[in-house]
Write a structure and sequence with these properties.
- The complex is a heterodimer of chains A (about 150) and B (about 70).
- Chain A has about 150 residues and is mainly β.
- Chain A has 1 helix and 7 strands.
- In chain A, the strands form 2 sheets. In chain A, strands 2-1-5-6 form a 4-stranded antiparallel sheet, with no helix packed on it. A 3-stranded antiparallel sheet of chain A has the order 3-4-7, with helices on one face.
- With about 70 residues, chain B is an all-beta fold.
- Helices cover about 0% and strands about 55% of the residues of chain B.
- Chain B is built from no helices and 6 strands.
- Chain B has strands spanning about 5-10, 10-15, 20-25, 30-40, 40-50, 60.
- In chain B, a hairpin with a 2-residue loop joins strand 1 (about 5-10) and strand 2 (about 10-15).
- The chains are: A mainly beta (about 150), B mainly beta (about 70).
- Chains A and B meet through strand 6 and strand 7 of A and strand 4, strand 5 and strand 6 of B.
- Strand 7 of chain A pairs parallel with strand 6 of chain B.
Amino acid sequence: MANTQAICTSFKTESMNGVHAMGTTVVRAGTGADTWKAALYLATATVNASTTAYSTTNEVTGAGYTAGGVTFTWTAPSSSGTTAFTTPSASFSWTGLTAGPFDAVLTYNSTQGDKAHAVYTFGSQTITAGNFSLTMPTNDATTGLFRIA
Amino acid sequence: VSEALVHTSRGNLPESTLRREVVWEFTQNSIKHRELYWQGDEVVKESADVYLLPEGHVFNVSAGQLGG
């Protein structure tokens, strides 16, 4: 037997579940998952790795779109090999939409002060009296939408 | 038999008066399917479905070296 340096895979999954705090943390109301939301941003916006929280600045507006975006849930985080992963449990969708051009969606934690999670881009898109959906990849260690490897 | 109507930015229009176009777009982060309805040179309806690809969505973490 030999020892191997590693970040423990269980820690990755537990981090997704909010088990550990290496700094100042927050008081939670319960043990359930937080409320997560997804908001669309205009192509003229600047949402990126520096984004710290949801903002209405340059968020999509128009018929069929409500500020703040849509609420979603994550599939329970799990792991395979040394990768922890999770993916939203359903597509993000808007119907009867007229808006754009937009090219990004921000996922954020509505429960924790709208703190930002991630930005996903998909090329500029305008919707006219139509529907828009973001379909999720397969939830596994190689294609899950959010992975810690 | 009445003709099918399409809900557009100019109200419900007979499908026969519109030109339908389907466009596929591929980027590093997504595959996009667009469906457009044209009335002349104007897009009066456009929908899209984006399939998010996993590229760039993984966070790599590593253990630091002791004494490094």
